[in-house]
Design brief:
single chain, about 290 residues, alpha+beta, OB fold (Dihydrolipoamide Acetyltransferase, E2P), 3 domains, five-stranded mixed β-barrel, four-stranded antiparallel β-sheet, 8 helices, 9 strands
Length: about 290
């Protein structure tokens, strides 16, 4: 005879049974989100969706048992009205709380494991690119902006493809801007390590050149000012910077530079001749 039958037959007082908390099982009703299910089980294996004491349908079923193993499956409200010792009620209430926390912690752990596995997979795919970025990152002449960019690139290697950026084969607008910046840093390192600037040569020059870095501009009280970066083509160790009211051309454009050297300047390890009054003739214009 189970405990409920014992109570109904008058053989056990429902208001003051000698019960101890055993476990909790939860019932999930079938819905549009999925089929019904039962999480957890009682020592006897019995499950019910109604309270043994009041008969009302319940989803969180608390199992109490006496010393003979007779079980009572009830809701927590009814458990509080059955004279069950306070310590046993506390165990019942904390069991659900602890189970929720344990389930949450396990879910978080599984997400971390999955994230770590995805990161490992991406790092394997990006191994060559990461090596190339680390090589550039170790260069001591990087600006703070360049260091931060390369650090972001290394972080991204754990969750997306950076090969298109490092290999300069971009497929999106975002990749294109990053690929141009990475190529610019790589080229600047080459220029610094191979520069042969003649700081004594001043005056008018006319050389074949290439725009090695995308020009940028800013507003001044006198209008918009452009900063242009050029290098001799073929490269012989000489670079030029022109700052003034003209945008000479776009990144990678080649042509003939006629200008006046008025001095030199060193920025981030690269020494460049400062030119004024430039005349730029692009290759397509000459043709």
């Amino acid at each position: 005879m189970n405990l409920m039958k014992a109570i109904l037959s008058g053989k056990l007082d429902a208001s003051n049974p000698n019960l101890q908390f055993c476990t909790l099982y939860q019932i999930r009703k079938a819905s549009a989100q999925g089929p019904g299910s039962i999480t957890g089980k009682s020592p006897s294996g019995r499950t019910t969706a109604t309270c043994d004491r009041c008969g009302i349908g319940i989803l969180n079923v608390y199992v109490f048992a006496d010393s003979n193993g007779n079980e009572m499956h009830v809701g927590i409200d009814c458990a509080g009205k059955m004279g069950i010792p306070l310590d046993e009620l506390k165990k019942a209430r904390s069991f659900k709380h602890d189970a929720v926390i344990a389930a949450h912690n396990e879910e978080c752990r599984l997400r971390r494991v999955a994230a770590a596995e995805r990161q490992r997979t991406w790092l394997e795919k990006n191994a060559d690119s990461v090596s190339a970025v680390n090589d550039i990152r170790s260069w001591t002449q990087l600006s703070v902006f360049e260091q931060e960019f390369l650090d972001r690139l290394l972080s991204a290697a754990g969750f997306e493809n950076i090969g298109n950026i490092v290999d300069n084969t971009p497929e999106t607008a975002s990749e294109k801007s990053q690929a141009e910046l990475f190529a610019c840093i790589t080229l600047r390192r080459f220029l610094v390590e191979n520069q042969k600037a003649d700081t004594t040569k001043l005056g008018r020059i006319k050389v074949k050149a290439r725009i090695w870095r995308a020009p940028f501009s800013f507003e001044t009280p006198f209008g918009r000012t452009y900063v242009n970066f050029l290098v001799t083509s073929p490269f012989n160790g000489q670079t030029f910077v022109y700052k003034g009211g003209k945008r000479l051309g776009g990144l990678g454009e080649e042509g003939v530079l006629a200008a006046t050297i008025e001095g030199d300047d060193t920025r981030d390890g690269l020494q460049s001749a400062i030119v004024k009054r430039p005349k730029w003739t692009a290759e397509d214009e000459k043709a």
